[in-house]
Specification:
The protein is an alpha+beta fold. It has three helices and nine strands, in the order βββββββαββαα.
Length: 235
């Protein structure tokens, strides 16, 4: 078990006892034996005020954060507590305050009572994996949509210029440079159409959606009559 400590100035005290997957805080018993590896209990699953953060179980080890009350004579060890690692069964040794000239008041035994855990808030490993998969799918879909939009925009842009140059060629007014530009753009347009077609196959290939096999995007042609907007590198 790993116990992280969150220091907080307050005058009450905290007693912690571990018994396997059971943690007793000031007599209040919290049984975490229902947790499986990879599960998480969020902070709002507890009505007790000592938990500060989620309770996780990873590689068979429970990890949690508890508030560490700081008395008026708190020590540096209490103010900047180190994590308690490999906490054994029995009373958990917490950082101690500085010596005090006030008489020590002996703490009476805490009455045993059952701590309340709202198990409906448990996030299982399977639920985490399902959510992570859904997030990866959403990202892949967004990337595919963006790539398709770019391809469609380039095809429209190139097609418009090819057709415009064709008007001049049909009218016998185009120059040799115009004809050369059209020929080059036709090659570019074919490449962009092939790219867009390949994008339509991405979801059917192995690796979708965890590692999509994206086709290589063709170069964006420079069209003087229809320049692409480029961000000012000086800004």
């Amino acid at each position: 078990m790993r116990v992280n400590l969150f220091p907080q100035r307050r005058d009450d005290t905290l007693s912690v006892v571990r018994d396997g997957s059971i943690l007793t805080l000031n007599g209040e018993v919290f049984d975490f034996s229902r947790m499986s590896d990879g599960d998480t209990l969020p902070m709002n699953a507890f009505n007790d005020g000592w938990f500060m953060g989620d309770v996780d179980k990873k590689d068979g080890e429970l990890s949690l954060t508890l508030i560490l009350p700081l008395p008026y004579n708190y020590s540096q060890a209490q103010a900047f507590p180190l994590p308690l690692l490999n906490v054994p069964d029995g009373p958990v040794v917490l950082p101690q305050p500085l010596p005090s000239d006030q008489p020590e008041v002996e703490q009476e035994p805490w009455p045993a009572r059952q701590g309340v855990i709202d198990w409906t808030k448990l996030i299982t490993r399977a639920e985490k994996e399902a959510q992570a998969a859904a997030d990866r799918l959403a990202l892949a879909k967004a990337e595919l949509s963006a790539r398709n939009a770019t391809a469609a925009a380039q095809i429209d842009r190139i097609t418009d210029r090819v057709e415009t140059l064709g008007y001049g060629i049909d009218a016998g007014e185009a120059t040799a440079e115009d004809e050369a530009e059209q020929a080059t753009l036709i090659v570019s347009m074919k490449a962009w159409k092939a790219y867009k077609f390949a994008l339509g196959k991405v979801t059917t290939k192995e690796g979708w959606y965890d590692s999509p096999a994206w086709p290589v995007e063709p170069p964006i042609p420079e069209i003087v009559a229809d320049p692409m907007l480029v961000a000012d590198e000086t800004t």
